[in-house]
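INFO  loader      accepted 1 record
INFO  loader      residues=296
INFO  predictor   begin
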Amino acid sequence: MPALVAVPDPASASGRGHLRVDRRGPKAGVTASAPPLVIIGGMTQTLSSWGGQIRAFAADREVIVYEARGQGQTELSLDDVSPPVHVEDFINLLASLEIEGPVDLCGFSFGGRLALAIAAAHPERIRRLVISGVSAGRGVVGRLIIRSWREALRTGDLEALAWVSLTDILGPTYLERSRDLIEPIIKATVKRNSYAGIRALFDAAVDDGEDSPYAPLTLAPRIPAPTLLIAGELDRVAPAADLGELAAAFPTDAEVAVIAGVGHTVAIEAPEAWRAHVLGFLKDGLDGGSGVANGR
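INFO  predictor   done
INFO  writer      dumping tokens
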């Protein structure tokens, strides 16, 4: 069940804050056979965005999904939401949860860029890395999309961003079959996030142009962990066509999976296909199935 986990927050008056976390594991009596898996979602995603995936991953391991600084109902200062602060939040979360060993890390879009920064800064903490919705660059279309999102936020209305971004982050097939869910999706996005948090993230954490030290192509060469890159064939924000360039930037070429017929939000549009790729990749490298206890 979701809970607030206390972590250090030097920017706050008390020096402490809380990350909102959903932590689950195997059923009682079942011993974990794999390291913990940590999931960081996209910018306006919350714990609820991953509810459909957690159960399958938690069958043989502990799974931790958390709302990063600025997301959802996490209670941390917004004075600095730059990538180094997010990296420190991740390390502090592992300490608060008493997870000492390496973990598997999965990040989507904004969360994928944070995951790259974490894996580059602390390679000793990451066994395997899964990145969805991040490519070598954004391309002209991707950059224009991000610009349109920024302009929507200038209205001071989070709902405006939710509507403007909808057709950018979800593919046409998903939108067509989920037309009755569109209004609830918009309302949930607005209800579960704060304008101040999302605006702060846009102002600081999305600055990842080619000259940024946190650009994917800059971070990848510093990441020794085996990596899987997943993209939707129709993704306009992180073009699948540029995935090979990013894969080649890792010290050992990353694996690449492109899922046909879906857009940016792969894990929601094609949940079974996405999960199959991730589970297969994470199982590689485990010691004959005996695995790791639980990372503590």
